[in-house]
Amino acid sequence: MKLIYMAGKGGVGKSVCSAATGIWTSDRGLDTLAFSMDPAHSLSDIFDIELGSQPKLIRDHLYAYEPDLAEEARGFYRRYKNIFTALFGLFEVEVKPEDFANMPGVSELIFMDKLNDIFVEKKYDYVIIDSAPTAMVLPLLQLPSITTGFVTRVLGMRNKWIGILNLLEKGFGDSILTEIRTMRVKAENMRNALLDPKTASITVVTIPEKAAVEESRRLIETVESHGVHVSALVINHVIRECDCRFCQQKMASQTSYIQDLKSRYQEKQITILPDYGAEVKGDRLNQVAEDLYGKGQMDTVNF
Ligand SMILES: Nc1ncnc2c1ncn2[C@@H]1O[C@H](COP(=O)(O)OP(=O)(O)OP(=O)(O)O)[C@@H](O)[C@H]1O
Ligand SMILES: [Mg+2]
Predict the structure, then answer these.
(1) Exposed end of the chain (fewer CB within 10 Å): N or C?
(2) Class for domain 2-69+105-150+198-293, per CATH?
(3) How far apart are CA 221 and CA 75, in angstroms?
(4) Residue extents of the structural domains in the chain
(5) DSSP assignment, residue 101?
(6) What is the pLDDT averaged over residues 168-180?
């Protein structure tokens, strides 16, 4: 199973590229899941199809999935209630299940957990991850060390309060520890998967404008400093032929950013995606898939 992770600044075309990649791989008979890791889901709009809280087959070989964060958070809260009760109870903070989904890091934790389930199940040849703007990938990489720190601290306190919790209810403290360890193992598995170039590939989507180019540079630098290789770069919204003055000026400025990106990232596969002049959804995705992969710009898909 391969993971393709679409990363990039807000609004640059990550979801469109994720959906089009799903079209391309599924058209080649590869079982594919387009998985939205953005709390503000948009795959259903782009595919023009209603998606539920389970992966849904939307055409031959292609499934799409937008986890319902609120529902997942309730399930997650129930599953890990012991930890939350013990930790937040100890700090005398009351956390209601409905508030839980909005706590920092929780959506990442939930998506990581879902991705891990999908990864373990190995039902798909490709999982395309449509991420939230910029570096949702970083929490995924950092979660193991966060949970490791957490476990270390809990273990350090073990004699102090795990014992006390065990007194309150037999095995309560130990069950918390087991649950945290399980969470850490999952987080580590996912990080290892992302670090393995045979399993995961990150495509950064950008547009030829200053802010986006700068943000992509920082994103690539940070992700690669964690040991994850960014193999491909998509430069989206590139203006094609047009004689009007506005477009001519814009094309000149886009060309300089494109040259800049090409010379800086010579070792990456770079694909130029035109501006289609209209919202990209439904059948238009076939064209995007062709423009992304049709002429071998990016080998199917980055492996
Ligand atoms: N090449 C293109 N030509 C024309 N419109 C495009 C192109 N690429 C994307 N769009 C449009 O731009 C908008 C943003 O695209 P998309 O949702 O894929 O971006 P995103 O990076 O996923 O955004 P977000 O960060 O909000 O998730 C959408 O309306 C989409 O149809
Ligand atoms: Mg998106």
Answers:
(1) C
(2) alpha beta
(3) 36
(4) 2-69+105-150+198-293
(5) T
(6) 70
- How far is Cα 9 from Cα 280, in angstroms, rounded to an integer? 18
CA of 176 to the centre of ligand 1 (A): 42
Amino acid at the residue 299: D
Which of 5, 16, 107, 206 for mutating ligand 1's site (highest number of atoms within 8 Å of CB)?
16
Residue 35 has pLDDT above 90, yes or no: yes
Q: Which two tokens stand for residue 231?
A: 């193999």
The answer, as to whether pTM is greater than 0.85, is yes
Tokens encoding 266: 């010579």
Q: What is the pLDDT of residue 119?
A: 92
Nearest residue to 109 via CA among 18, 41, 54, 187 = 187
Q: Which alpha helices (H) appear in 97-209, and where do they start and end?
A: 97-100, 106-121, 137-157, 163-168, 172-195
Give the pairing of strands 32-37 and 126-131.
Answer: parallel
Helix axis angle, 172-195 relative to 106-121, nearest 10°? 70
How many Å lie between the centroid of ligand 2 and the Cα of residue 179? 32
